[in-house]
């Protein structure tokens, strides 16, 4: 079987997304720092927090995921991006929409409809791009299932978001507003981010550890269990059955535990014994994600889910989603830059190795400080402790700034 | 040095930048053919099908052979079957990775 080559994306496209996302990360972290008093008193529904949350989720995590997908989808699924020019237009629309949206949420939330629609257009353009790209794949596999379902979850989260706005303005299905809102959050977090990270982990974990000879059969069971948990959770929202919601959280935690076990099985078959430090942090996000899922289940079981959801969500987004993304960015960005700068020089001249592109050891203090900061902030929200919040968030912001500097400094190599 | 040895020796210049080990010691070169005078056909694989360095390594191999005066035409066939396994690595490469 001959393999198809020339799948690489124009380097500028993923880089635009990643560089933009770094600015959003710093902006979101700074906004959270300056609104500490609202956060520790659990007043999340204030304009600045909404702005920071959307800047973080849409500007940082979503834009990074989009940039990474523009680079990873062609190499992982062995199919070129459907239309690169469309990708650049999609970046412009989405980036403008997100900045405008965050600005409107901060200054005048009532006027956020137009920028929300622009952002929505950008995300829908991305979904079209990915749909058209993935349908060209010759042989869909279990990774297509994870990534495809993650994309469908993102689309569902958007459609539910539109339904919420429509419901607020017209009163349509107002009885189900809470169920729609909860489903919107569930699909946007567990459906989109978790399934996407699961899917790409199945490619990147064996690749960066050089694991071979492991079975991929458990992956479809991981998918089935986790997707069943998502379906049960949505059903519990619409039937308003708390016991079903607890069962759904148990299934989701079970699916996550199954994924963790499968990752361990893969890592046990690795050839590369000494793993890169930044990659270890991406791996560390897996037990963190498992602990958060188990924590959510236990809180629901003990009747404390409502009071715990704020810091559970905060820890989920930062210790599972952000730590995974940061750990992998330490690997992906040098790959991208090396490919652009040196791929044509390979074997012609002496070229640096990927290790020379980034100081991998720097990930230890930076990501450790990031984790410590997030844990401090999470505890400070639980105990409503302002001083702990401020010191924790200053640490998180500082670590984010140094992280961005390290990523950008690769471009000088 | 026969043509195959010459090609293999020259291919040791092509390094996998992630592992910092050359493609020969990694066991990525499956076969070398010389169907016509001045033509070399390399059949090779990569450690994983979704390797982001896919095109870079293949073009590195191509250039490396084109650089030899004995060959005017080079064809590189990238295959996934049979899949690469760690057993294909030389003991030196194995030692480097296993530390």
TrEMBL record, chain B:
Alphabetized Pfam families for the sequence: FeS_assembly_P
Superkingdom, natural source: Bacteria
Cross-referenced Gene3D superfamilies: Fe-S cluster assembly (FSCA)
Domain MIP18 family-like: 6-77
InterPro entries according to UniProt: Fe-S_Maturation_MIP18, FSCA_dom_sf, MIP18-like
Protein name: FeS assembly SUF system protein
Organism of provenance: Cytobacillus oceanisediminis
């Amino acid at each position: 079987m001959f393999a198809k080559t020339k799948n690489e994306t124009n380097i500028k496209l993923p880089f635009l997304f990643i560089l933009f996302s770094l600015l959003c990360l710093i902006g979101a972290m700074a906004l959270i720092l300056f609104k500490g008093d609202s956060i520790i008193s659990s007043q999340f529904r204030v304009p600045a927090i909404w702005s920071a949350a959307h800047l973080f989720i849409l500007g940082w995590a979503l834009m990074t995921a989009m940039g990474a997908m523009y680079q990873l989808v062609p190499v992982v699924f062995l199919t070129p991006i459907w239309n690169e020019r469309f990708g650049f237009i999609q970046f412009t629309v989405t980036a403008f929409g997100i900045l405008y949206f965050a600005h409107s949420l901060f200054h005048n939330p009532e006027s956020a409809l137009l920028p929300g629609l622009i952002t929505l257009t950008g995300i829908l353009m991305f979904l079209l791009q990915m749909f058209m790209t993935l349908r060209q794949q010759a042989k869909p596999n279990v990774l297509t299932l994870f990534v495809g379902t993650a994309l469908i979850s993102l689309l569902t989260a958007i459609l539910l978001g539109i339904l919420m706005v429509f419901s607020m303005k017209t009163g349509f299905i107002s009885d189900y507003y809470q169920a729609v809102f909860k489903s919107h959050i569930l699909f946007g977090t567990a459906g989109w981010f978790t399934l996407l990270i699961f899917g790409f982990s199945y490619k990147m974990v064996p690749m960066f550890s050089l694991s071979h000879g492991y079975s991929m059969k458990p992956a479809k069971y991981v998918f089935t269990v986790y997707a069943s948990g998502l379906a049960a959770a949505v059903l519990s929202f619409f039937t308003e059955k708390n016991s079903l919601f607890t069962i759904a959280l148990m299934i989701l935690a079970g699916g996550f535990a199954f994924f963790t076990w499968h990752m361990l099985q893969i890592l046990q078959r690795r050839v590369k014994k000494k793993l890169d430090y930044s990659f270890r942090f991406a791996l560390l996000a897996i037990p963190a994600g498992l602990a958060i899922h188990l924590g959510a289940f236990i809180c629901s079981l003990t009747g404390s889910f409502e009071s715990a959801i704020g810091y559970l969500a905060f820890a989920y987004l930062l210790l599972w989603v952000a730590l995974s993304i940061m750990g992998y960015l330490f690997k992906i960005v040098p790959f991208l830059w090396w490919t652009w700068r040196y791929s044509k020089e390979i074997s012609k001249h002496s070229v640096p190795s990927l290790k020379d592109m980034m100081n991998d050891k720097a990930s230890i203090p930076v990501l450790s400080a990031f984790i410590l900061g997030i844990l401090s902030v999470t505890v400070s929200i639980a105990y409503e402790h302002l001083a702990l919040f401020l010191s924790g968030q200053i640490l998180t912001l500082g670590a984010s700034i140094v992280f961005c500097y390290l990523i950008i400094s690769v471009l000088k190599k | 040095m026969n043509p195959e040895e010459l090609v293999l020796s020259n291919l040791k210049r092509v390094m996998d930048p992630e592992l910092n080990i050359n493609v020969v010691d990694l066991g990525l070169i499956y076969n070398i053919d010389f169907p016509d005078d001045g033509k070399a056909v390399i059949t090779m694989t990569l450690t994983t099908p979704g390797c982001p360095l896919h095109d870079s390594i293949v073009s590195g191999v191509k250039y490396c052979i084109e650089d030899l005066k004995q060959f005017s035409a080079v064809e590189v066939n990238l295959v996934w079957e049979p899949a690469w396994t760690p057993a294909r690595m030389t003991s030196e490469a194995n030692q480097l990775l296993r530390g």
